[in-house]
From TrEMBL:
Keywords: Phosphoprotein, Two-component regulatory system. This is Response regulator. Residues 8-127 form the Response regulatory domain. PROSITE patterns: RESPONSE_REGULATORY. It comes from Zunongwangia pacifica. SMART domains: REC. CDD domains: REC_hyHK_CKI1_RcsC-like.
């Protein structure tokens, strides 16, 4: 289903193929989406500090330098007045990852590679039905 609501998403992943896949799926589901890419955790924090006006953040967990957990924690600290949902992107969703993610402020998970149906559910849950 296509949604016409304009939304703004920060997509964070060190793999350009994953960023392309995210952009392709989100754009098909929500043609009016504005997707800003960050190639690592440090860049995601810098982008969020400049403009915290995002509806959702898709955050890879395993990145060099500042990983997704650290970046999520910092972003949640910056966004204390306007909470933004952070969705972790990970190839495997183990219990220790989930508890570590909760401590870092991660709201939910999407398995990699991302697929249209689970992505649609996340969009509905956190953005489009609000």
């Amino acid at each position: 289903m296509k949604y016409q609501k304009p939304i703004r998403i920060l997509a964070v992943d060190d793999n350009p193929v994953n960023l392309f896949l995210i952009r392709t799926i989100i754009t098909k589901l929500c043609p009016k989406a504005e997707i800003i890419n960050a190639k690592n955790g440090e860049e995601s924090i810098e982008i969020f500090q400049r403009s915290a006006d995002f509806d959702l953040i898709l955050m890879d967990l395993q990145m060099p330098g500042i990983n997704g957990y650290e970046a999520s924690k910092k972003i949640k600290q910056i966004a204390q007045n306007k909470p933004v949902p952070i969705i972790a992107l990970s190839a495997n969703k183990m219990e220790d990852m989930i508890s570590k993610g909760k401590r870092a402020g991660i709201d939910d998970y999407l398995s990699k590679p991302i697929l249209p149906e689970p992505t649609d559910k996340i969009l509905k849950k956190y953005i489009l039905n609000k």
